[in-house]
Please model this.
Amino acid sequence: MANILELNVEHRDGKRELGNMTEKLRTIQTRFDDELVQLKTHAEWDMFTMAFFGETNAGKSTIIESLRILFKEESRQALLEQNAHDLEKYEKALAEHIDRLREGLYRVYEEYASQITTLRTATARLSVILQEESAARNRIAEAEAEARKRLAEQEASTRLKAEQEEAAQRLQIAQQASSARIKTRLMVCTFGAMVLGAVASAMFLKLAGA
Model:
C-alpha cells in the first residue's frame, strides 16, 4: 500500500488501475483484520495446542503417542487401557479433520493467490501505461525542441537576410553619395575652367586691342 501510494500517476487509465489495486489491497487487509478480531474474541489463549502434520505414515501418531506415554498422561493411559481397539478410529477421525483443514487452507490460498495474480496483472498494465506516458512526454519534448530549433533557425535566417538587405542599402546610399560628390566636383571644375577661359579670353582681347 505504501509503495502504491507513493506512485505519482497522471494518466487516466493509470489512475483507474491504481485505484483498483488499492481497493483490492484494502479488501484483503479488512478480511485479515476481521479474522484477527475473531481470533482475539473467540480463541482460547490459556492453553497451547501443538499440531503435527506431514505425509501419511510419516510417524506423526508415533511421536504423539510417545510423548503422551513419556509424560505419563493419565487420561491417555486410561484411554489406552479402556479403548485399545479404538485407536485406529481416532486416527482416522483425526486424518479426516486434517484433510478438511487442508482443503480449507487450499481454498483460502487459491483465493488470495488469484487476487495477488490479479494485482500483478494490474501492476504490469500500470507499468505499461507509465512507460507509454513517459514515451509520449519524451516525444512531445523532442517535438517542442525541434520546433524551437526550427524557429531559431528561421529567426537567424531572417536576421541575416535583414542585415544583408540593410548592408546593401547602405552600400547603395554610399555609392549614390560618392557619385553625387564626384558630379559636384566635376561641375565645380567645369565652372572653374569656364571662368578661367573667359578671363583668359578677356585678357587676350585686351592685349590684342592694345
About this structure: The longest helix spans residues 87-209. The two ends are 133 Å apart (CA to CA). The chain has a mean pLDDT of 80. The chain is about 85% helix and 0% strand.
